[in-house]
Amino acid sequence: MSNAILALLSLLPIISVAVFLVMLRWPASRAMPICYIVAVLLALMVWQVPFLRVMAASINGLIDAIELIYIIFGAILLLNTLQESGAIRSIRKGFSDITPDRRIQVIIIAWLFGSFIEGSAGFGTPAAVAVPLMVGLGFPAMAAVVSGMIIQSTPVSFGALGTPMLTGVFTGLEGDADVAVFAQSMGMEHIELVSFIAAKVAFIHAIAGTFIPLILVSVMTQFFGSKKTFIEGLKVWKFALFAAFSMTIPYALVARYLGPEFPSLFGGLIGLAIVVTAARKGFLMPKDDEIWHFSERSEWDSHWVGQFEIEEERVDSPAMSLVKAWMPYAIVAALLIATRLPQLPFLSMLRGDAATLTISDIFGTSLGQSVQPFYSPAALFITVSIITFFIHGMNGSAYVNAWKTSGKTMLSAGAALVFTVPMVQVFLNSNGGAAGYQQMPIELAEGVAALAGNAWPFFSTFIGGLGAFVAGSNTVSNMMFSLFQFGVGERIGADPTWIVALQAVGGAAGNTICVHNVVAASAVVGLVGREGEVIRKTLMVFIYYALFTGSVGYGIIATANGSMFNIGYIISALIILSAVAIIIRYGVSSEPSLTS
């Protein structure tokens, strides 16, 4: 069978997701079972994968789904605990004291706090922390989920202390003779090569990430404002760019000089310190008569609202200091860092043999799964919830109610995830069949590469994004495609480290549209059945990110090959000039007065 036909067949599970979930607007609980069946039929009938291997892959997916549901429960429990204790009211007031403007709030919470949490824990944890926090502050659930997904781009390549690079790219390239020869020619060990690539990843991300806070607020005002216009978001363009640079500059410097572990963590933390301090002093903030709010709750579209309800006032709860209210989130951040740093003993304790449940050789195949329940962010969320019971002086009935409500909300996510994640595992484990084909994502990438030729840098980010879209992980996408991308780079005469860097960048951007991350984030705030609508709103963000970074990468590679004036730089310049023109036309001319 030709590469083109195999590529088209490999695309069918993804097309089915697009058709049923995005175009027909089916809820994930209805769409994903069909997508799972499509993947299974392809694996059995075209790839001729043994039935037991397909079932083993499905069991692998079910185990992953249970882990996700576990994390969702922990995140919901922590939010419900803070709601019952009265902390959410104090946190809401604290943000209002900085500014009641929702545009500024979403930049601080989603972009900066979310980047910090991504750098600490990764694997969708920002959605489990920042999204419910925004709902707790009075954001529509849909707006919170969309915002949480949009920022799942720039910080993701260095999430969980650099795991997408140190595990994803490292493992993806490890053991290949051509990679070893290339590294030796550069005078580098394998880990040094990965760090070298990571610096390039951060450089590309810093360019595209400059506009993410501005896109974030523009999307929010376009879809969730009473006037339904992106112009209201553009009015805070100075603050948005200031917040972007406050994160991306330290982020890029840390990647260059300290390595891949800390760019997102330090970038988010330094950005928070700079931006919150500046905001408290009124720097670049809109004046009182230009404050932007969501419309009254009674005017919200019904599909914006999740099952989780926030009470505007809690007259029965005592007043709580801001420090005490934020203490659970501070503990979450501290524990995330403490349990992820290899220099501390907790990482080996939580991931050691005694704390790991291993299921190997499922149905006699090579597939298996290891579960580390105490290392999961869920265990951390539950632990902090229990701590909160004591430090907030909660009564027993309120805390029991938090557990009951969380359990009910968690169950609603199960129907979608028990088919979404098994579909992904069947798609990824479709090799080893009698037909002799490679796994579906590799066959798809091979088909695209054959068509693209020297234009491959434009496509490399989209392939990385595709891997994250189906796998739900930048790390898995990098493991799957890094060696393939390296080989394509060598075949077209490009510096392969730039091609692998584009893979990692695209894989990060793919998290903005990743199906099971959207399902999980939606479930945390009870927004079940609207997953396709979230993806429709974040799809253009992914296209922007993949196209812009692919163009930058093409321009850099073409310049190294002697072509200073090339289509990559032209497209990049057009994107930047278009952004500047839009800001001047709609942001500057209709901009509120700003204090300085």
What does this molecule look like?
The protein has 596 residues and is mainly α. The chain has 25 helices and two strands. The chain has helices at residues 3-23, 28-46, 51-85, 87-98, 102-120, 125-136, 141-150, 159-173, 177-185, 190-209, 212-224, 231-234, 237-257, 263-280, 322-340, 346-351, 377-391, 396-428, 440-452, 456-471, 474-491, 496-509, 515-524, 531-560, 567-588; strands at residues 357-359, 369-371. The protein has a two-stranded antiparallel sheet. α5 (102-120) runs parallel beside α13. The longest helix is centred in the N-terminal third of the chain and has 35 residues, at 51-85. The model is unreliable at 590-596 (pLDDT under 50).
List the helices and strands and how they pair.
Blueprint: H1 3-23, H2 28-46, H3 51-85, H4 87-98, H5 102-120, H6 125-136, H7 141-150, H8 159-173, H9 177-185, H10 190-209, H11 212-224, H12 231-234, H13 237-257, H14 263-280, H15 322-340, H16 346-351, E1 357-359, E2 369-371, H17 377-391, H18 396-428, H19 440-452, H20 456-471, H21 474-491, H22 496-509, H23 515-524, H24 531-560, H25 567-588
Strand order of the largest sheet: 1-2
Structural class comes to mainly alpha
Order of helices and strands: HHHHHHHHHHHHHHHHEEHHHHHHHHH
Shape: globular
